[in-house]
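Ticket reopened. Same input as before:
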Amino acid sequence: MARITLDKIAHSYLPRPTTDADFALKEIDHVWEDGGAYALLGPSGCGKTTLLNIISGLLVPSLGNILFNEEDVTRRAPEQRNIAQVFQFPVIYDTMTVAQNLAFPLVNRRVPKGEIGRRVTEALDMLDLAGKANRKARGLTADEKQKISLGRGLVRYDVNAILFDEPLTVIDPHMKWQLRTKLKELHRRFGHTMIYVTHDQTEALTFADKVVVMYEGEVVQIGTPAELFDEPAHTFVGYFIGSPGMNVLPCEVAGDRLRLGGREIVLKRSYPELRGCTELGIRPEFVRLARPGEGLPITVSRVEDIGRFKIVRAKLEGYSFDAVLPEGAEVPEGASAVIDPIRINIYQDSHLVRGGA
Amino acid sequence: MTLELRNVSKRVGAELHISEVNLTLEKGSQNVLLGPTLAGKTSLMRLMAGLDRPTDGDILVDGKSVVGVPVQKRKVAMVYQQFINYPTLSVYENIASPLRVAGADGATVDRKVRGAAELLKLTPFLERLPLHLSGGQQQRTAIARALVKDAGLVLLDEPLANLDYKLREELRVELPRLFAESGAIFVYATTEPHEALLLGGATATLSEGRVTQVGTTIDVYSRPCDLVTAQTFSDPPLNVVPMQKSGGRLSYDGKSIATPTGTETLADGLYKVAIRPHHLLLHRPPGESIEVQATVSATEITGSESFVHVEHGGSRWVALTHGVYRLEIGDRVAVFLDPTGFLVFDAEDRLVAAPAAAVRQTAGRA
Amino acid sequence: MEKTLNNKAWFMVLPVLFIVALNAIVPLMTVVNYSVQDTFGNNVFFFEGTRWFTEVLHSGRFHASLQRQFLFTFTILVIEIPLGVAIALTMPRRGFWASVCLVLMALPLLIPWNVVGAMWNIYALPDIGLLGYGLNWLGFNYDYTQQPTAAWFTVILMDVWHWTSLVVLLAYAGLRSIDDNYYRAAQIDGASRWAVFRHIQLPKMKHVLTIAILLRFMDSFMIYTEPFVLTGGGPGNATTVLSIDLVKAALGEFNLGVAAAMSIIYFLMTLLVCWLFYTIIMQGEKE
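Engineering reply: fixed in the latest deploy. New output:
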């Protein structure tokens, strides 16, 4: 188990990167705590896999160093880093039984036989695979195969970190729940440092204590699920986390006053003079629909009743604007939108601005 | 056109893939086939398209049987879960391919292709090869091809399953709109109840090759005719709680409440009460409810909502709450069974009372 | 995915059936016909029953050529399969050099069989051939036209040169289908080079190797042209494998009945082996 230090790491796939745009991964400078559960979340092409490959040792970063505890491992190959990894598509050794698969990393490391047996039995129990120990691994279902991949990491007590690369891609939806829960439980029990790459918000938020949101090669926010939901540091985070995503609308801010749609809203905080593009972010959950005239004028274009709540798709000053209403709530004729001022976040050029009291 | 399936069954070897399906799909209608993997969605679509022949029953288009008419001669377009395009043709030629087959003249092809590309935001990529596009763009190309084909029947088999969820969100809103304008019969297969609700229209729920219920999507959701349908239409899984009705009381685990709306007239006895996760509450509701002490076994956060899995007396339930809710595994919590969210099933798993639906309706009217 | 049944489809197969009937079944029947009759010319035939079969099965000459045949097939399999796998393993996985290697590997396969025989015939000549001359210069007493061992050595070397490429290409295709993540996982699991081969590469190559063995078995079992051109079955009968013996009997000695019986026995053996392999492959698929 190890603390992972990313010391001013950046990576470009080009031999001589010059501009910022040449970097697939822009400079990252973070320390990830020992025993933490981290998720790298972002759409495809955001650099999350590049970062994972730097941690696992498949890539040497163009700039910066990576440290496991105090040790610089930047230039070490994957097998010298003492990590475990679960891949997108299950990797199992077809010809071996389940137990032999789990024993494989230990056999390779010449662990004594008795010790191997003990650890394998333990891993089989943890992963609920005890009944299938002597089955050929080939005939198993995808989720069982992924458990075996994970198990090959768990039997090695001393791994620095366990890395997961979109491990639930090929798993049936109803099995995803169980596997995620299992992962969480194992993390609680053993406290491995775990790094989980995904583009799925549910997987990331459920699994991780800290979610690292990436966008266009940059880490835009590292935070707990609650922080990502309540105070997205970047408009992208607001859009990406939550379904439907956060409403982002251009507005004018002066001190603690915000002007939008010909109305003035009094904010809870006061802001310095903002340059560039000023926007407000408000989650659809914190929008209430009221009778005309009470709030901001909107034009409702569509109401989607999805059972447990309704999504109201509307336009506010020509910008799309969503509101979420509770089950059974009515959409008033010619409705207006009332925004909860406490929940408003202010963005300058897409980055969050924290106001003063 | 109108598509009608009469008593259609499909047997492959000893296995029954589709069992006595009756369905009528009207021109311009939007239909969802909802069911878990292997429920028979794809088999049913293949029968509709004419790729397979039913073992029994008849398939009629505008009242005339089309069994045996090869798929090439039917006006059918299909989009699959995998992104299927011609790898050596440009996006433009991919979209144009059905028109070329139909022998349309150059001007018509150009107009239609550019129109479809515009709708699906593919205009900048028309000259590229599909493999150089992202998954979403590839699937949009396949959809555009289905769109220009001017088919009377458009079948989409989990078309968004392989896409990032944000992209899925966007396309899900777009898709029904695109096809609504063409007047085609639109059939969309999905495993996700959430997706069915977002698409709206009509839904047929499938389970083990049978259609268990057909109706307006929201009706099927709020009044599932039996327990299987209710389970098909619930993700995360439905909580099913056995309850005893005697006199005017409904009881569980030694606690009881007055019979909720619609259940008063039921005979005394044991019922299965299904509660959707968002009706299993972690806060005491305003009215009467059954309070149960449970242990947290997992929490999951989707972003704006949290799922809390709890264990109580050997059964596992899921509660869905709004906002980010982090409880530790092993925590003791009180959960409340709110009668306004009950769906009551009898011993044969048939729906006998749905206070939940009643609540929706009155709230809807108010 | 099961297909819609359409009986008209059978008509599509008819032309093929017709051609197969003409060029396989009719000749085979002729052979069957010869194998149970005797003739002294003028198209007068006498029915002999199973006499030729009994004769062939008890003939020392047939046993000897059958033994040589098996020895030959066994030897080239033992050499070509491991060698082919080994070469495939050392070939680059992608890039410019992968293409170069593939083209080089494919070259011997493109040369007609009789040309291969002719090439080696000259190449191995002790007086003017590079190989033969070189070996003698190195101090080996080598003359494939005179020494049975040298003839065997040359025939096998020629076959290895000609056909190992096929095994290489098949094995290479099998290796290419292995996802990179398997290698990465094995690296992370601390697997040795041998363990990677034993547990990842070999299992993934299993199917193509079965096919390679089957193809090489059949081809070598039916081999005729190359040894005929190279050694003509000699010196003496040293390299007279089954097919050469068969031709000798039929055309050289005009023993039509014996040759026909040999043909049929030969055919049945090939059929049996093919069936065995087919069953094994199909079983492998099912698992």
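The domain at 247-353 of chain A is CATH 2.40.50.140 (OB fold (Dihydrolipoamide Acetyltransferase, E2P)). The two ends of chain A are 42 Å apart (CA to CA). Please confirm and we'll close it.
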